[in-house]
Amino acid sequence: MSESLNLFFPLGEAQPIKWRRDSDTPLVPETDGEWISPQAAQDMLTQWPKFDAIRVFFPGEWAGVRQVELPRVSRKQAEKIIPALLEEDLCEDIDDLHFSILKIDEKLATVAVINHQKMQHLTQWLHQGEILATTLLPDWLALPEGHLLVSGERCLLRTKQWQGWSAESSLAPYLLKAQLRDSDSVSQLGVYGELPMALAAALDSCGIEKTTSETLPAPQTTVVGLLCGRWKPRVNYQKQWERWRPTITSLIVLVGVMTVERLVSLWSVTERAQQTRTVAEESFRHLFPEQRRIVNLRAQLNVALREAENGVAEDELLVILPLIVETLESKGILKQVDVQGMKFDQLRQELHLRLRADDFATFEALRENLATVFSVKQDALLQDNERVTGGMTLKRKQNNAS
């Protein structure tokens, strides 16, 4: 269902504005009324659904529709030169007038002309009522072509698409004769309202056939109008902000809360990760004390494990380690030596130990006791502060291996 709102501004600016709701659904009746102020319009519009079109019609006396020949130029260029082309035909300064192109047919342009003060009055009223009009036209363009409307003391006539006028009833007969005298004019008019005697006589004298109708049709739809250039409708951002401010504020608060929760969660995860890394580094240093500097814990741990394992078969290592413990415990030397690191060579079946003891004599006793079970190769010993550090390579003797 399509529904439109049509507004009719009066000739006197202090008079109420008439409105009419039209629908393309036959079961929905047209309604009309008056607004005495923009606030009254705003209060009522808030109770109505959104309209597909809002057409505004003002007194035809406020604007003139003229035709002018154009050179071969684009529409954008035509908008700039039309005021100068019409300057000699107008009584007012073109700087005080608003020009709107209604139609361009080859070299002929149909142009509506209205004073800026009138446009200011119209657009200001619509702005105060928060009405976003789709078209703004003289009131006689609300009629179908070939129709005459008599409403109180005013008459509206539309003969062709862009031909017509609005005037007081006393002037209507003279204007009617002047326009219908043209041989290319209409031969029949549809009449709405009661014709004054002078106007009826003028129609008869011009030989115009009259058909009377009591139902006034809905205004004709058009996409053109005077709302262009500096008078093009613009959204009232302040009103839009006031309307959407609660929703936007709620969204901002919601996003803020979610962001804070996310940051707190991220901080908590970071703290747990740091604590886990600290524990892992302490365990790594305890297992591999020679690794004093940790750059990449994962990579260093993998390298240390590979060096310790040096292969997948560990049967020989499982035999060597108990022999070392058993031999040293029997001699009471085990607790006098610290093992700093070990490496098992699977290919040679040798165990490399990095050891630390209190003195050189302990290393000598250690070598002599291990030599009863292993072939021992001792590296050079180094004095490290008050302790001695050195390395030994052990391999089981043949009689023990068997």
From TrEMBL:
GO biological process: protein secretion by the type II secretion system
CDD domains, A to Z: ASKHA_T2SSL_N (cd24017)
Domain of life: Bacteria
Gene3D superfamilies: 3.30.420.370, 3.30.420.380, General secretion pathway protein M, EpsM
Presence of keyword Protease: no
Record field: transmembrane: none
InterPro entries from the UniProt entry: ATPase_NBD, GspL_cyto_dom, GspL_pp_dom, T2SS_protein-GspL
Any Gene Ontology CC annotation: plasma membrane
Membrane-topology annotation of the record: Single-pass membrane protein
Keywords: Cell inner membrane, Cell membrane, Membrane, Protein transport, Transmembrane, Transmembrane helix, Transport
Entries under SUPFAM superfamilies matching the protein: Actin-like ATPase domain (SSF53067)
Domain GspL periplasmic: 239-397
Subcellular location: Cell inner membrane
Main localisation: membrane
Domain GspL cytoplasmic actin-ATPase-like: 39-201
Function of the molecule: Inner membrane component of the type II secretion system required for the energy-dependent secretion of extracellular factors such as proteases and toxins from the periplasm.
NCBIfam families per the UniProt record, alphabetical: typeII_sec_gspL
Official protein name in the record: Type II secretion system protein L
Organism: Yersinia nurmii
Taxonomic classification: Bacteria, Pseudomonadati, Pseudomonadota, Gammaproteobacteria, Enterobacterales
Name of the coding gene: gspL
